Amino acid sequence: MRVFLTGLVILLFAALGASQVGVGLSKAVGGVERVALQEPKDGEGDSEKPKTYPKCTKCKTTGKMPCPEHKKSDATLEEGVVYCSFVYTDDLCGGTGWLSCEKCERPDVDAALLKHREGIPDLRKEMVKMDEEMEFELHTVVSEHFVVVMELESLKVGKKRLKRHALAHKYLERLERLYTDYTTILGVKESDFTERMRVMIWANETDQEEGSLRFCAQGAKYGVKLLGMTPTYSVCGTKQYFGGDEELHRGVVHNTAHLLLSAQKPVDWIGDKKGGWADAGIAHWFEDRYFGICDNYCYQEQDTSQGFKGGKWKPAVKKMVAMKEEPNAGTVFSRNTDSLTLEEHAISFSYIDFLIQKDPAMLNLLLKRLRSKTPTRDALAEAFGMTVIEFQEEWREWVADTYPLR
Fold it and tell me: I need a surface site. Which of 159, 186, 291, 387 has the fewest CB within 10 A?
């Protein structure tokens, strides 16, 4: 099985010059009782009634129509997107892909379209800076939390081949889903992130090397991450490195999870502060969550042929525990990301798996403490009230009881 190799950059930036950088699970909703509410008196509660609008057959009462300068399918892609280089040049819609419906009176939609339109010029200035760095115009889409640069001309996704525009939006949509999962599962606040994360997918090694050098401060033919401030993942997305969309998607999920962890307040990369188990474990956990396998590693290629074939880690961890061959927790907790062995990668994934099912909010607290340079043993005691020995004993019992044999 191919194991992918990811480069990583460690730089120092501060608030006035330097802060360290490195490289849906939806919450279960319980039953809600229906409560009989007292009828409001005349004049009370009017402001909370949903507004209704005259039915419009032209726009189906949405208040907007696709801009005639674009295909309807292209305009539909712009829903929920704040900037798209594929449509920004259109003066008619101002780069939104949509126009207000002339047959409707929808002041709410008109205001939203105007706000979107007015925000595009400033975003365009930011995107032009990246274009100037590369000396050609990039194909860029921007959402609330991400910037995606998509230079692949097309890629088969499922049974359909998507051209560059649709492909860029597909990856942006996937990244927003990952963001929602990450923040929902761990109980992370929106305010814990201060800037958009950038994911750049190049169509050849030359652009990848140049792009990673300019945006991650280190050139590499395959993949590089800039962690912490200005979180960025730059990768060559060709078949030379990825078999297809699923493999590329898996790599993007894994590496973006690294970005999310490092960019969350307090901003820092824990992978070189003996927090490698959490740094790698979070990335592997989300990779496993979406795909059921783990085959992405940072720094060095690992041999997965013995006991980890196919990236199915839960049975492998269960076997290690049953044979009492798993690494000691104290040892794993002392590793940097670049020194984790294959077995320790799998164990790190399992540690995160265990702590998420135990209390994801407390795991978030533990991760915050690690980014504040608190040793794992102290962060574990504060968040979960456990010593390292108690943690390992409880984790071993949980793995033995819950992990599958195959």
Answer: 159
Q: For residue 50, what are the CA distances in angstroms to 53, 63, 112, 391?
A: 10, 16, 17, 51
Query: CB atoms < 10 A from the CB of 398, how many?
Result: 16
User: Which residues are CB-contacts of 189 (< 8 A; sequence separation ≥ 6)?
Assistant: 183
Spatial distance between the Cα atoms of 9 and 21, rounded to a whole number of angstroms: 8
Cα distances from 239 to residues 121, 184, 273, in angstroms, run: 36, 33, 34
| CA 264 to chain CA mean position, Å | 12
Whether 205 shows a pLDDT value over 50: the answer reads yes
Residue 12 token pair: 């120092």
- Separation between Cα atoms, residue 281 and residue 278, nearest integer Å: 5
pTM of the shown model: 0.84
Under the banding of pLDDT at 50, 70 and 90, the label for residue 98 is: confident
Pairwise CA distance, residues 156 & 21, whole Å: 34
Give the pLDDT confidence score for residue 404 in this predicted structure.
96
Whether pLDDT at 1 is above 60: no
For residue 303, give both structure tokens.
């041999």
How many whole angstroms separate alpha carbon 112 and alpha carbon 101?
Answer: 13
Residue 27, both tokens: 């919450």
Task: Dump the DSSP string for 220-281.
Answer: -SSEEEE-SSS-EEEEE-STTT-SSHHHHHHHHHHHHHHHHHHHSSSP---TTTT-HHHHHH
